[in-house]
UniProtKB/TrEMBL annotation:
GO terms for cellular component: cytoplasm; nucleus. The keyword Chloroplast does not apply. Keywords: Hydrolase. InterPro entries: AB_hydrolase_fold, FSH-like_dom, LovG. GO terms for molecular function: hydrolase activity. This is Serine hydrolase domain-containing protein. It comes from the Eukaryota. It comes from Emiliania huxleyi (strain CCMP1516). Residues 64-193 form the Serine hydrolase domain.
Length: 231
């Protein structure tokens, strides 16, 4: 099952797939302001009524549900159900024509696996992943991330790792995505970062998918100069 914001047009390439953490659902994830929800995170994504020529088009999102009784994407140290979840996410990426993926907690670990498979040419092509509190996955998927880390010929999937300064496990995941991986430190512990993440990262999804400019909910567009520095 997937839920999402109102469509801004079938031809839009600004689409991202959301993956909730364990113990919740897609609907609760996008609507909850608690530590297990994405409401405050999504509030940072501009929803402009004046989007068009001088303001970047709005980003769409779709939240995928794990479809399990307890909201988990897998169970146990052996990752029971993980292969099925990977297949479900990759199918949704194709169906939704999503170019990026955003995950929280268990959903972030799942997103890291899907991003790694994309970079290694083993899954659908995506351009970016935003990983909030990702942990190293159970084997054999941990080996997949290590293989990505050691493969200099792997394709590039841009990643943003939103973690607390003391979260060493998430830092280990970030290291598997190479020098281009970006880190956004925040004080929310295991929660999603608040609405300021969009401005702090200079419209990360827009920037890493080749956008010329970005904006917040109010004010004019801000252009990227050479090297993605803001003019």
């Amino acid at each position: 099952m997937s839920i999402g914001a109102a469509s801004i047009g079938a031809e839009s390439s600004r689409r991202m797939l959301l993956l909730h953490g364990s113990g919740t659902s897609a609907g609760a994830f996008v609507n909850s302001p608690t530590a297990s929800g994405a409401k405050r995170f999504l509030a940072g994504v501009p929803r402009r009524a004046d989007a068009g020529a001088s303001i970047p088009p709005n980003w769409q999102y779709h939240a995928l549900d794990a479809g399990t009784d307890d909201g988990s994407w897998w169970t146990g140290d052996d990752g029971k159900g993980l292969e099925k979840s990977v297949a479900s996410v990759e199918r949704a990426l194709v169906e939704q024509a999503a170019v990026g993926i955003v995950g929280h907690e268990q959903g972030a670990t799942l997103a890291a696996i899907v991003a790694a498979r994309s970079a290694l040419g083993e899954g659908p092509r995506i351009k970016f992943a935003v990983l909030c509190g990702a942990a190293m996955p159970p084997p054999p998927h941990a080996a997949l991330l290590h293989r990505l880390r050691d493969d200099s010929a792997a394709g590039a999937v841009q990643t943003l790792h939103c973690i607390s300064p003391t979260d060493s496990d998430s830092a280990a995941v970030a290291a598997c995505f190479g020098q281009e991986a970006e880190t956004l430190f925040h004080d929310g512990g295991g929660a999603m970062p608040g609405p300021g993440w969009w401005e702090e990262t200079r419209g990360y999804p827009e920037r890493v998918t080749g956008g010329r400019f970005w904006c917040t909910q109010v004010g004019p567009a801000r252009y990227y100069a050479t090297g993605n520095m803001v003019m």
